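Journal club prep, notes for RB
We'll compare a predicted complex against what the paper describes. Inputs for the NAP case:
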Amino acid sequence: MILDMFSLKGKTAAVTGANTGLGQGIALAFAEAGAKVAVVGRSPMDETLGKIKSFGGDAFPIKADLADVAVCQRIVDETVGKFGGIDILVNNAGIIRRGDSIDFTEKDWDDVMNVNLKSLFFLSQAAARQFVKQGQGGKIINIASLLSYQGGIRIPSYTSAKSGVLGLTRLLANEWASKGICVNGIAPGYMVTNNTEALRNDPIRYKAILERIPAGRWGQPADLAGAAVFLASPASDYLHGFTIAVDGGWLGR
Ligand code: NAP
């Protein structure tokens, strides 16, 4: 039956940056769809674990700071150690630094590139090696951005990293589709999370952005649930290298 193809029952997922925001929303959606979820990040996962437990879901925290790629193999190993395997990886953790390009620092460049692009690649590599070992394929979902498609302003390292995520998603799909590994992305629009707090606190920018969103509202973490479960499930087995915008219509405007 078609709805069975969207089920994640019997699957194991790792979601980075799952303590809050979009990562938390995705982790909850996966657990609701039946997956066991390793919730990965540098901050305590208590809130996410509590929410998943409240509806009888199965989750397990992994403490890891993705500023250092050395944690990538451990994340996969701990997920496999706890749940016996890994089927789905969501590269969601990300940071943003704002500043005029004329003054932008090397630190603000490196910090963003390390978490948003470098660790995303090496964690994908560690997961893909495990998928190959398991012999059943797998799913990788990269969280991109509208800044994968547009330039933005005063966020040079973020735009560079997110544009890189879009290209890397295509490249990895080209290399790994034949191994049964689906690599795809989600480009969220303007969502209500910590990432956009500064923008939402600026009344002029907030109003200007809102007026440009065809759906007439900012997005919530739950708005990504459908696309994330779809890309993690067998329903998307022939979908490779594509980044789906969940943006209230922003890019179409
Ligand atoms: P958020 O609430 O700031 O969440 C970011 C997550 O990444 C947090 O869990 C954060 O952990 C984690 N993280 C950051 N640096 C990390 C590190 N070094 N190691 C491990 N985890 C780290 O923002 P969000 O909006 O949910 O962001 C999730 C993803 O969506 C990001 O990739 C972001 O770029 C992307 N995105 C967001 C929007 C939007 O409008 N909100 C739009 C497009 C794309 P801490 O809580 O410990 O910092």
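Talking point for the session: The first strand starts at residue 12 and ends at 16.
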